[in-house]
Amino acid sequence: MAKLLMGKEVSARIKAELKTEVDKLKEKGIVPGLAVIIVGEDPASQVYVRNKERACEECGIYSEKYALPEETTQEELLELINTLNNKTSISGILVQLPVPKHIDEKTIINAIAPNKDVDAFHPVNVGKIMVGNYDFMPCTPAGVMELIKESGVEVSGKECVVVGRSNIVGKPQAMLLLHQNGTVTICHSRTKNLAEKTKNADILVAAVGIPNFIKGDMIKEGAVVIDVGINRLENKKLCGDVEFETAEKVAGAITPVPGGVGPMTVAMLMKNTVKAAIINKSK
Ligand code: NAD
Predict the structure, then answer these.
(1) Residues 163, 218: Cα–Cα separation, whole Å
(2) How far apart are CA 118 and CA 120, in angstroms?
(3) Same fold, 29-113 and 139-262
(4) Domain boundaries of the chain, sorted by first residue
(5) Which of 10, 121, 169 to mutate to test the pocket of ligand 1 (most atoms within 8 A of CB)?
(6) Ligand 1 pocket: which of 11, 52, 210, 228 to mutate (most atoms within 8 A of CB)
(7) pLDDT per residue over 146-205, tens digit each?
(8) Which of 6, 140, 174, 269 is the one with CA 20 to 30 A from 120?
(9) What number does the ligand 1 atom closest to the CA of 169 have?
């Protein structure tokens, strides 16, 4: 039976450590502050934003939430970002994605000051991740790295397979694994003989967005399997990209969905916000 990598527990530990750090920073007059902007009514985004606000409270981080109506113009959003870029009580800015279709996501990401870009989506921060000299780690891939650490398996020299090549998960995930000296293969929608590749993985990260896509017979015996996917089924239940029932029989360690990568993403966001407060204070 595979070891369960409980993101919920690991993230609680990380948040408790951060709370201690934040208390110490406050004694020095440094108060980390996160601004979260949400445009529109997307139900999943609402849940994510609520979780982020709650995590701020748990860590003692000051937070401001800007819930803007669906019809907000790009100019209005840019104006708010500009105000927050210059607001000293705000160390980190996060725009919950996706934004409505009439707003250009890239323009918005580019408008956030890189030293406040706690999601690490700005091209400056993406470039820094590429060269391995970064202030902010991208939250979801960073959370995945923590869970791999929790499995007790060293990344160095291992066959690592990432399924998915998005800018927010797959690509930065591959980079973080590479920085830890993994031998990394990125698979995507055009990959041929996918199972052949995944079956070769000592560490398998699934970030596809298709429910139960990776089956047990696609996994190497004893592999560490990290399921980034969050998919809502017709019966309203959440499920990952990995078929848990068949995968856990083969894997050495595996994350559940929910309670695996999801809470880690939020904990890593808190970590980045604290880091941003330190960086911006010392400037
Ligand atoms: P995306 O849609 O941007 O990317 C999906 C990737 O999967 C693409 O790169 C595509 O090439 C690949 N893909 C699609 N079909 C494939 C196939 N048949 N074979 C191999 N690869 C295929 O999605 P994303 O933003 O990277 O998110 C992926 C999943 O992770 C989603 O379920 C999302 O909800 C979830 N997610 C979770 C968290 C979290 O905090 N746990 C954070 C971000 C995303």
Answers:
(1) 12
(2) 5
(3) yes
(4) 29-113, 139-262
(5) 169
(6) 228
(7) 999 999 999 999 999 999 999 999 999 999 999 999 999 999 999 999 999 999 999 999
(8) 6
(9) 26
